[in-house]
Specification:
2 domains; five-stranded mixed β-sheet; 16 helices; Aspartate Aminotransferase, domain 1; 411 residues; 12 strands; Aspartate Aminotransferase, domain 2; binds pyridoxal-5'-phosphate
């Protein structure tokens, strides 16, 4: 099956007992068994079954099956949020004294997670310009245990050379983790470019309707867990093979940290996922047209969108993302006042900190999601005072353009 079909049918057949076509919401914590023998077998892993929703539940499980298929992976784990997914991956692989090599200009929450939260536990992170693969290589250390990149950095809109960075990771014998939130499996299957682990904030495009927070981890099957530098996972691989990493998370890290999603959120995400391929087509087409419109507008100082030939990442985005530039763009209006004026004048576009919603959203990154960082730090993250970020929705393009035109006229 191909992507449009998989998004609707992948990993779930109508419920055997009732024939329900929508995946039922198993709003329960625990699961009862007839006999002590049965429950002990499920605990031992010798019989299939669900025991407790913090570990597994059939509704999130259906979402995991569908995401595994869409990413072409060997298995998935869905989490309470995108941050929970990244936390699990790092906590599942690293120990005190280990090092993360990450691209700079990634999602601010992830920067803080690496720097502040994991920093407290003695895991150090180096952030390197995503455009500079050579500099990434220079910053590899003996104790580097994973490389982390985003498919499109936000708000810099930079696209790392994923296949080259995958080679780098594999020469060092460590996994490449790719946060593909901005691209989704519809624009890129990172597996095909060498990525070992894919993470998503499903809160964004995958859910698509801004109604439930969630995250996902997909093991692409590229990394051989029986070889890597992770002793405990190597040991697990003797029994679990390629599923060793996900088993390590499910039975230890994810379970202990309590990263499970609410079944109702997984249901809403599954519903949103059905239309993801069609929505991504429209997000990308609208963003492309809006970028071109803004680039020609006299009040706009600059536009940054990987789908514009003026972007230094245009050729790479065309190659990696199947000829598309994604649904997010940034543009500059010269100063903070103008940026605020524009945002206040929009009528259709909503001012909020989210992205990947069906609705068009605008945001002033410097005073919102990046407000806790100093000016120099903001600059290094690609944030400027005059920047407006747009998550381009799937409304009729003419309505989006008219709203932007009238708001620009007032700025
Ligand atoms: C939003 C986002 C996250 C965090 O996801 P939450 O679901 O908000 O926890 C991580 N990475 C990227 C690229 C994001 O956009």
């Amino acid at each position: 099956m191909k992507k449009h079909t998989l998004a609707i049918h992948g990993g779930y057949a109508p419920d055997a007992e009732t024939g329900a076509t929508a995946p039922p919401i198993y709003q329960t914590i625990s699961f009862a068994y007839q006999t002590a023998e049965e429950l002990s077998e499920v605990f031992a892993g010798t019989a299939p079954g669900h025991v407790y929703t913090r570990i597994t539940n059939p509704t999130p499980y259906a979402l995991e099956q569908r995401l595994t298929k869409l990413e072409g992976g060997v298995g998935s784990l869905v989490c309470s949020s995108g941050m929970a997914a990244i936390t699990c991956v790092v906590a599942g692989l690293l120990r005190t004294g280990d090092h993360v090599l990450s691209t700079a200009g990634i999602f601010g929450g992830t920067v803080s997670l690496f720097k502040n939260t994991f920093g407290r536990f003695g895991v150090e992170t180096t952030f390197v310009d995503a455009a500079d693969t050579e500099e990434l290589a220079n910053n590899l250390r003996k104790n580097t245990k994973l490389i982390f990149v985003e498919t499109i950095g936000n708000p810099r809109m930079d696209v790392p050379d994923i296949p080259a960075i995958a080679d780098l990771a594999h020469q060092a014998g460590i996994p490449l983790v790719v946060d593909s939130t901005l691209t989704t499996p519809i624009l890129i299957q990172p597996k095909n470019w060498g990525a070992d682990i894919v993470v998503h904030s499903t809160s964004k495009f995958i859910n698509g309707h801004g109604n439930s927070i969630g995250g996902a981890i997909i093991d692409t099957g590229n990394f051989s867990w029986s070889d890597g530098p992770f002793e405990d996972i190597r040991e697990l691989a003797k029994k679990a093979g390629q599923l060793a990493f996900l088993a390590q998370l499910r039975n230890l890290i994810y379970r202990d940290l309590g990263c499970c999603p609410a079944p109702f959120n997984s249901f809403l995400t599954l519903t949103g996922l059905e239309t993801l391929p069609g929505r991504m087509d429209r997000h990308c087409a609208n963003a492309q047209q809006l970028a071109e419109f803004l680039q020609k507008h006299p009040k706009v100082c600059w536009v940054n969108y990987p789908g514009l030939p003026s972007s230094p990442f245009y050729a790479r985005a065309q190659k990696l993302f199947d000829g598309r530039g994604g649904g997010l763009l940034t543009f500059g209006l010269g100063n903070r006042n103008a940026a605020f004026g524009f945002i206040n004048a929009t009528k259709l576009a909503q001012n909020m900190t989210n992205l990947g919603d069906a609705k068009t959203l605008v945001l002033h990154p410097a005073s919102t999601i990046f407000h806790e960082f100093g000016l120099d730090e903001q600059k290094s993250m690609g944030v400027s005072e005059d920047m407006v970020r747009v998550s381009v929705g799937i409304e009729d393009f003419d309505d989006i353009r008219d709203d932007f035109a009238q708001a620009l006229a007032q700025t």
